[in-house]
Structure formats: structure tokens, C-alpha cells
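Async update (no meeting this week)

Hi team, since we skipped the sync, here's where things stand on the single-chain job. The sequence we agreed to prioritize is pasted below, unchanged from the tracker. I ran it this morning and attached the output directly underneath so nobody has to dig for it. Comments welcome in thread, and please keep replies under the output.
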Amino acid sequence: MTITTVSSRELNQDVTRAKKATRNGPVFITDRGKPAHVLLSFEEYRRLTKQRRNIADALSMPGVAEIEFEPPRMVIGAQPADLS
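Output:
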């Protein structure tokens, strides 16, 4: 998958190029240098918005490897029972 980035001005000047770029992956559209919108093919949009049936499907979606997620470690220790 290739991510293409275009400015709002470039998009306005050549919409066809941006639409063709969605064949290879999402197109990020920037406003003043910051990502503001994403252009996707309709097939990719439908794939991303379909209901996931299990965790394996959700974890197999493109881009998951780039998501930073470090959950806190849980320490579960035994505590003495109060039998009084």
C-alpha cells in the first residue's frame, strides 16, 4: 500500500491524479502542511467500514503495525483472606 500526500491546492488543480492515486492506497490531503482529509477508493472505504467478525480480522487491517500501543502491565498478587 502506498500513501500519497497532496496539498489542498494540488488537489484542486488535479483531482484526477488524486483519484487515480487511490488505486494504490489512501491519499492524504493537507491544509497548511497538516493532514486534514483522507481520500479513499470506494472499495477501500467499504472494506474498512464493514463490521468485523473477530479480533483476528481487526488486527489484520493495514496500518495496525504502525499504531503505538503499550498497555500498562497488571500485577495481580494474592492477598490473605480475612476470616474473622
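Quick observations from my side:
The chain has one domain: 4-66.
The chain has a mean pLDDT of 87.
Reply here if anything looks off.
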